[in-house]
Amino acid sequence: MKHIRNWGCKVKYILKFTIQRFWKIIENVLTLLGIILTVGECVLLMFNSNIIYTWMHDYVIWILGGCIIISFWKNKVYLNYEYFLKGTDVKINLQVSDVLNAKAAIVIPTNTTFDTKMEDEFISVSSVQGQFQKKYFANNIGTLDNLIEKGLEGYAYEKIDRTHSKDKKYPLGTVSKVTYAGKHYYFVAIADVNEYGKTVNTKFENVQIALEGLWSHLESRGHIENLAIPLLGTGRAGIKEASRKKVIQEIIFSFVASAKERKITENLQICIHPLDLEHKDLELDKLNEYLHYMCEYRYVDNNDKKEGVMIK
């Protein structure tokens, strides 16, 4: 059922933007027909031959069908874009997919106490963390807690007065690497929560801090492997300013700025969940333009003149 729903969202999005491009498709069809007619007129004038017109008359259905197919292809709605940072072998991929299905190390947004309890929706089953726990640790949350705790060894924390959840609070941007079934999962703290699991003190700056903390962690404790990241802060984190468009742009900007100083992956996969296609601010072709610009023009080699400032 989940897969059918995801595919339904993709089909709905494709149809929506194909309809919006209807007149552009008609324009392309007429342009192609005009080119063929122009060629026919040129052949008639230069060689006194009606061969093109005869050919058009005999195969009118095929020609019209071909023009329509080409026009639809030219205006195709894409759900996957990728570019290399100029002059490097580092690639950024913007794709519509469930991050948990990625064949890569996966980023899991979490809270600053690294709580995992799902009772009373402290961790929502609809969140990335909730889906991850349901998929792999439904009956052994204790094992996940131990893995997270191991990944937090050596990090400073603040002891807080809690009885119904964990009592160690870590700074925003803290990362715990969890290795499970031969795969790496990076739990990154993006929001404070109260003892009931409600997010507090939410700001867009949380996203920026979490990203910088993630890049820094990967530089010192990570591996050069493909990395898949969801749209941080757009769901249960409750960050008001974190629209999906803004978060995608921030991930791209932050990664490009970081890549000037260090190499942490050769393939960053920014995963937009199919359900996110329902939101009005998501126009993938516009985000593709931003991604292309950042990869082609904003990334500058360390040996060249620097542009931009890495987020601290």
The proportion of residues forming helix, as a percent range, comes to: 40-55%
Beta-strand content bin: 15-25%
Helix and strand content put the structural class at alpha/beta
User: Helix count, per DSSP?
Assistant: 9
Largest sheet: 8 strands, mixed
**Distance N to C terminus:** 42 Å
**Total tally of structural domains:** 2
CATH fold description of the largest domain? Leucine Aminopeptidase, subunit E, domain 1
Helix and strand succession? Answer: HHHHEEEHHEEEEEHEHEH
Radius of gyration, Cα only, in angstroms? 25 Å
Question: Key terms for this structure?
Answer:
two-stranded antiparallel ribbon, transmembrane, 9 helices, Thoeris protein ThsA Macro domain-containing protein, 16% strand, ThsA_Macro, Leucine Aminopeptidase, subunit E, domain 1, eight-stranded mixed β-sheet, Macro_dom-like, 312 residues, membrane
What features would you describe in this structure?
The structure is a single chain. This protein is α/β, with parallel strands linked by helices. The protein folds into two domains: 22-74, no CATH class; 80-298, Leucine Aminopeptidase, subunit E, domain 1. 44% of the residues lie in helices and 16% in strands. The protein is built from nine helices and ten strands. It has helices at 2-20, 22-47, 51-58, 60-74, 128-136, 141-151, 205-221, 244-259, 284-298, and strands spanning 80-84, 91-96, 105-111, 158-159, 168-169, 175-180, 183-193, 199-200, 227-229, 267-272. The strands form two sheets. Strands 1, 2, 3, 6, 7, 8, 9 and 10 form an eight-stranded mixed sheet that branches. Strands 4-5 form a two-stranded antiparallel ribbon. A hairpin with a 2-residue loop joins strand 6 (175-180) and strand 7 (183-193). Helix 2 (22-47) crosses helix 4 (60-74), helix 7 (205-221) runs parallel beside helix 8 and helix 8 (244-259) packs parallel to helix 9. The longest helix is centred in the first third of the chain and has 26 residues, at 22-47. The chain starts with a helix and ends in a 14-residue tail after the last helix. The model is unreliable at 305-312 (pLDDT under 50). It comes from Oliverpabstia intestinalis.
